[in-house]
């Protein structure tokens, strides 16, 4: 083969490896949080206080981890359930059995803290 053909094959191979690496890093592969054991079981008051007191430290501790948060439901809307102290839980599937003023424990992946709104956000949530 010619040198230009080899160069083209190498560039294409590097491009494929680069795209696959990017997708793996950005999307992290398939993860089923509902089957994972929570790394932390905590009340909504306690986790909210941790984020307010030390946001960077709480991010290091909880970010991208599976947590089980217990608290009182203040609002439900479709797949979103909000626990006291602004814990926003996006459910994996709509749950019509959870209603406001009900005490629940919800397991999900902690995806971030919005310090402007004061909200802790969880996704892939399921009720325990």
Mean pLDDT: 89
Strand order of the largest sheet: 2-3-4-6-5
Describe the sheet with the most strands: 5 strands, mixed, barrel
Radius of gyration: 20 Å
Shape: elongated
Domain tally:
2
List key phrases describing it.
128 residues; 6 strands; five-stranded mixed β-barrel; 3 helices; OB fold (Dihydrolipoamide Acetyltransferase, E2P); alpha/beta
Topology of helices and strands:
Blueprint: H1 3-27, E1 40-43, H2 44-53, H3 55-62, E2 66-77, E3 80-83, E4 87-91, E5 103-114, E6 119-127
Parallel strand pairs: 1-2, 4-6
Antiparallel strand pairs: 2-3, 2-5, 3-4, 5-6
Helix pairs in contact: 2-3
Can you give a write-up of this model?
With 128 residues, the protein is α/β, with parallel strands linked by helices. The protein has 2 domains: 1-30; 33-127, Nucleic acid-binding proteins (OB fold (Dihydrolipoamide Acetyltransferase, E2P)). The protein contains 3 helices and 6 strands. The protein has helices at 3-27, 44-53, 55-62, and strands spanning 40-43, 66-77, 80-83, 87-91, 103-114, 119-127. It has a 5-stranded mixed barrel with strand order 2-3-4-6-5. Helix 2 (44-53) crosses helix 3. The model has no long low-confidence stretch (mean pLDDT 89).
């Amino acid at each position: 083969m010619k040198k230009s053909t080899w160069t083209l094959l190498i560039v294409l191979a590097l491009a494929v490896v680069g795209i696959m690496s990017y997708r793996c890093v950005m999307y992290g592969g398939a993860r089923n949080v509902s089957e994972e054991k929570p790394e932390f079981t905590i009340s909504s008051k306690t986790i909210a206080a941790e984020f307010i007191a030390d946001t960077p430290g709480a991010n290091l501790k909880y970010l991208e981890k599976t947590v089980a948060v217990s608290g009182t439901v203040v609002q439900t809307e479709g797949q979103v359930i909000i626990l006291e102290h602004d814990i926003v839980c996006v459910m994996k599937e709509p749950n019509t059995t959870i209603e406001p003023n009900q005490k629940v424990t919800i397991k999900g992946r902690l995806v971030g803290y919005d310090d402007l709104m004061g909200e802790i956000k969880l996704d892939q949530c399921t009720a325990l």
